[in-house]
Write a structure and sequence with these properties.
Elements (H helix, E strand, L loop, with lengths): L9 H17 L8 E7 H9 L2 H4 L4 E8 L7 H11 L4 E5 L13 H6 L4 E3 L3 H10 L4 E8 L4 H14 L4 E7 L3 H8 L8 E4 L1 H7 L5 H7 L3 E3 L4 H17 L4 E3 L11 H10 E3 L2 E4 L3 E4 L3 E3 L8 H5 L18 H5 L31 H9 L9
Parallel strand pairs: 1-2, 1-7, 3-4, 3-5, 5-6, 7-8, 8-9
Antiparallel strand pairs: 10-13, 11-12
Helix pairs in contact: 1-11, 2-15, 7-12
Length: 380
């Protein structure tokens, strides 16, 4: 495949692996005392397991799976509120497909759809906007979910709805930001993190400088990475070389896609439509200050929270994890998916207990998909 096979070249991969092994030896990392590198993005987690990079890299490199899966960090209370919106007469509730099977307290959006709610999967908030144009007698609600990658498209849709005066369109905003949870993890005395592989798609929007605090305040290296196997291997090498040299910097391996200062059009749209929430609940991390976004008052006519009195507008509601589910611990890198007692037994892609087994970026889904039944063995 043109423009992709260059980043999957076996000869180049072997050369990078040899350099990774050499630097790992130089810094004295071993299986008993490894370098802990957190890949923040769930897309990176899946790429690591899809291409077997966890097996190809030396034992002195341990991948820690971070909270970069927006569906996975969504608390069950937010899913319950989506269903409450969908149950309202006259509402068409729209969402990305990843969120359809995430369990709420009693059921998922997919189950609510089966029960008769008008819930539709869309590929873009613009699809939801078009539904609102075609159904002027219905309220169309879009589930705004995701990190900075998807946040601009929702903002642009709200701006377009405002220009058209499309009053039957609104967004249930649950957009979140990458830097605050990383700071929360770095402040956790129980976490051992030596470096980071930074998210490529998020950085395409915000650039690389929002991660400056990681190197400046915590002395940890971070390398923004692409998603092909050579991207990830080169990024791991760059992190290891920083550790070997006693440096801590923000480096951009994914420069072919990620501009240093991000996308100014996207950043401007986000600044116009959103403001930080005082706090937002993350699955496994709890409330984190200024980690979520809400729609500004001037766009309140297109804010489903304000329009329907739901979500944070009605007061945050905390719902505990299902009994036996260790999604929070896996999501924050405290344990591997196979250490969850429900992994592959009580929790499977067909019958998930938690979001990490459902999402295309979930760590548990990656372990299950690319490890299958063998992945269950370490937990037995």
């Amino acid at each position: 495949m043109k423009y992709a096979e260059e980043f999957r070249d076996p000869k180049a991969a072997r050369a990078l692996l040899a350099r990774i092994a050499a630097v790992t030896d130089e810094i004295g990392a071993t299986a008993e005392n490894p370098v802990h590198i957190m890949e923040i993005c769930g897309g990176h987690t899946h790429a690591i397991f899809r291409y077997g990079l966890d097996k190809l890299t030396p034992p002195g490199v341990e991948f820690i799976h971070g909270p970069g899966c927006p569906v996975c960090v969504l608390p069950m209370a937010r899913v319950d509120e989506c269903i409450q919106l969908a149950e309202r007469p006259g509402v068409i509730f729209t969402t990305f497909g990843d969120a359809m099977r995430v369990p709420g307290t009693s059921r998922s959006l997919m189950q609510a759809k089966a029960d008769g709610c008008d819930i539709r999967m869309v590929y873009s908030p613009l699809d939801a906007l078009e539904l609102a144009r075609r159904n002027p007698d219905r309220e169309v609600v879009f589930f705004g979910l995701g990190f900075e990658t998807t946040t601009p498209s929702t903002a642009l849709s709200i701006q377009q709805a405002a220009r058209e005066g499309l009053g039957n369109f609104s967004v249930f905003c649950n957009h979140i930001l990458v830097p605050p949870p990383i700071k929360a993890l770095l402040d956790d005395p129980h976490m051992i993190l030596d470096g980071f592989v930074g998210p490529g798609h998020v950085s395409m929007v915000i650039g690389i400088h929002p991660y400056d605090f990681i190197a400046r305040d915590y002395g940890k290296p971070i390398v923004v990475a692409g998603f092909e196997p050579l991207d990830l291997l080169q990024s791991v090498l760059m992190v290891l070389e920083q550790i070997r040299d006693g440096r801590a910097a923000v480096e951009n391996q994914y420069a072919r896609v990620v501009p240093e200062h991000g996308n100014p059009v996207s950043i401007a749209a986000m600044a116009d439509v959103y403001e930080p929430r005082p706090s937002f609940e993350w699955r496994g991390l709890g409330e984190i200050d200024a980690s979520g976004l809400r729609i500004r008052a001037r766009y309140s006519a297109w804010d489903a929270e304000a329009k329907f009195g739901i979500g944070y507008a009605a007061g945050a509601r905390v719902v505990p994890e299902q009994e036996g589910c260790a999604c929070g611990q896996v999501m924050t890198g405290r344990i591997k998916p196979t250490a969850c007692p429900m992994f592959g037994t009580g929790c499977t892609p067909e019958m998930p207990l938690g979001a990490l087994m459902v999402s295309s970026e979930g760590a548990c889904a990656a372990y299950y998909q690319y490890g299958g039944a063998r992945a269950v063995e370490p937990a037995e």
